[in-house]
Structure of KTSC domain-containing protein:
Amino acid sequence: METSFTNLDGFEYPAYKIKRYISNLELFTLLLTDGSIVHYIAPDENLFKSWLISNNIPDVREQEYISAGILS
């Protein structure tokens, strides 16, 4: 199934430019597809995280747990 990326109002980058992310409360650190790292303080962290998830952008922490065999 092909992913259809979306944009989020008020956020500068389209979803297709984000490779992965890690977050701590409202602070998100994003790795962009061009190798740049962006720090973003989300006004609504739940909404922003839901947007990332809906666009299939991986959370670094979850990837580490899967690699370690903690999550399947």
Summary: The mean pLDDT is 86. The longest strand covers residues 18-24.
